[in-house]
Amino acid sequence: MADAATETTQATETTVVESWTEWDPLAHVIVGRADDCHIPPAEPALDAKVPADSDMRGQWGRRPQESIDRANELLDRFADQLRARGIRVDRPTPIDFSEPVRTPDFETASQFGCMPPRDVLLTVGREILEATMSYRCRWFEYLCYRPLLQRYWEEDPNFRHEAAPKPRLTDADYRPDYLSESISIAQRLDWAAAKHFVTTEEEPLFDAADVLRFGRDLVVQHGFTTNLKGIEWLRRHFPEHRVHAVNFPGDPYPIHIDATFTPIRPGLILNNPQRRLPAECRGLFERNGWEIVDAAQPAHNTPPPLCYSSVWLSMNVLVLDPKTVCVEASEVYQAEQLDRLGMEVVPVELRDAYAFGGGLHCCTADVRRIGSCTDHFPAG
């Protein structure tokens, strides 16, 4: 844990919100917390994500305290590792996730948590944007970050705090054919190839973790949590950026891009070998000399207990600068690959926190990276 002097020093630093890429030198970041995290009750978006044979099926309620304590221990250690490298670290303020969510359009009996700020907050330049979210249980999750965002707004006169329009999340937002537990993997892969996802085009939907930042360009995954209207909303909201929609037909559960497609430094991207970027989407990168490399195999055959994510959190890394990357400590094959690619690898123990919302990229959200808005795709 950071001592009080460190916390005070960091709190008095000048706040500058600015981040244009996934790899510029990291100076200020939010690291999530596992406090009071719940397994949410069944709902359309959630049911489509959980495999039929998962130990998550049929369970909901507060996670065991010992698992919460262990996850927080690892998140606190990670925050201290970043502080030791001179990176300012802020933490969210958890709300009572046992409270139900009620709107005129839906009701769900509990919420989720605030371990993965990357899902909710998208930093583009001098702006932090709150995503719509597509899970009903995550409707109020943005409240955990409002104390931080309010402080940034007061301290940085150039900071823009924006929030995308809240969706209604009625049943019209979800395809009923995804509600069956008996959908085969083959059927899911056919639907993914046809871009037939659980979310409809009723209204704009996107999660921030479906967006990767490449300076002037934003690459956005079309899948379960982000629809085409959500991508169009981002295109209109960021008119100075070029917004590119991508999809990965090899993924039967396409939620969030950061365990599938991971930029490491200018010109280099790791791609999940089971979810390769299709040929029609590769031109942007190939024309501009980017190398897309198959990520190393995960070190584990199964995810941890009660975990939504796949074993491919192995490639959910946090780049600290173009020469340095944080990798989960047990993911030895991914660490070895990145070492061979010329990166300094910083091992971080986090596997016991995976179940609370993801890996090292998921559990962080950029506030500041030192860099400017550069065109990394000049060939268009």
Automatic annotation (TrEMBL):
Residue ranges, annotated region (Disordered): 42-62
Glycoprotein keyword on record: no
Domain of life: Bacteria
Tagged with keyword Metal-binding: no
Entry keywords, A to Z: Transferase
InterPro entries the UniProt entry points to: AmidinoTrfase
Family: Belongs to the amidinotransferase family.
Official protein name in the record: Glycine amidinotransferase
Organism (species): Paralimibaculum aggregatum
